[in-house]
């Protein structure tokens, strides 16, 4: 193996190859899961605090947008930079620096007295998150060299990610009921103060091959290109016109820089990211499945939250509680993932996950103007099981296919695919939702055309306009907006189901069986694709050449 590793084990044990020895690796997994939990919680915990932040800091509309979006925007942009940097200078070193930066930025955010300081603090949190996320997966890849054990570890890791995403709004709602909005950031500090010394003592240090200099120019091109693409996609998801100057420039510059980055990496003797990984069907297909899964579901999750709050009239805390079955099901699927993978193999597991998720989405088209608790619980449980099964199989196949020396780069590619899929999903499904929602408000009796146009922007705006109008016209507009939103939700669910079925078809390129042992790992380290069964190899082409 071309990578090097030194395990920082208790009782001072240090030495190459120690990363896979003894029960210490399961303690390492606990530390990595705590790291991931913090990052996942921080991505969603602010959502319920936005009204309190708005009331206290009085940010402008643009400033409020940046307060919410700057964290995922910066984090997604820097994943490849810090993932590959960890391969060169040490993954534990990058992770510990991420801990420290995350803690400092959390303190600044909690004590911010104006919008500009909070935006800067959220940006620093994004930098810290980008240092932490790929490092957790790449260290996990190093600590668990045996694929069977690694599958168990990835199942636990992904279950923790599901918990973090769901706990964020619940925790934020609880803290806001008892403290001020800054408390949603202060909770990070004690955990980071504990994680830093424990991580330094326990986590293994590992690097890649270290051949050639680190491509600083390439890293900056990737960061700037991803920033432009994610910014453009987020603007589209926020309802901006595709022909808007900022959106067009962001997308054009971002895509141009990423194309230049790919061409640069293919020319270099020692590339920042080994793009030959994409020539392996299991790797490229896994990345594509992650994008499709998030594209189909993240925008849908946002719309579902609006449905629960605005149509059914639930509070943010009640909304979070209604989504708990999804989280519990996702945890269960993550913990059972390794057993399912060994029994059924990546192809069947990911295809079945997509199909189960599509079934759940179609089932949820039964949602109407009134709550149907049995339908919601059943749909959310199936959704959690299907989504986690899909993402587990895709992440495990992607990480196992990558050479150990490229673990940081591979983890960064997976996380970037996750973020891009989420952003594109919000833009695409949000556009579908708006296209299906707006026509129903074009001719409501007694409502002026200008008010109808304002109400067509969103259900929340429609309720505001209806409250201002009052009387019969207001009630008619409110009812029409609610009915139109439910109709738009049904259309969006069906489009999402179609995307999920496309994912199931794409997953047919994954290997039929879970390959374990030293031979596949040795082949991956040398850049040679592991042997595949004939059915999996049919039609396999290089994603780079395409």
TrEMBL record:
Keywords: Antibiotic resistance, Cell membrane, Membrane, Transmembrane, Transmembrane helix, Transport. Residues 28-515 form the Major facilitator superfamily (MFS) profile domain. The keyword Transport applies. SUPFAM superfamilies: MFS general substrate transporter (SSF103473). Residues 524-546 are annotated as: Disordered. GO terms for molecular function: transmembrane transporter activity. The chain crosses the membrane at residues 26-49, 61-82, 94-112, 118-140, 152-172, 178-202, 214-231, 243-262, 283-308, 320-341, 348-368, 374-395, 416-437, 487-508. CDD domains: MFS_MMR_MDR_like (cd17321). Pfam families: MFS_1. Residues 535-546 have a biased composition (Low complexity). The keyword Zinc-finger does not apply. GO terms for cellular component: plasma membrane. It comes from the Bacteria. It is found in: Cell membrane. It is a multi-pass membrane protein. InterPro entries: MFS (IPR011701), MFS_dom (IPR020846), MFS_trans_sf (IPR036259). GO terms for biological process: response to antibiotic. This is MFS transporter.
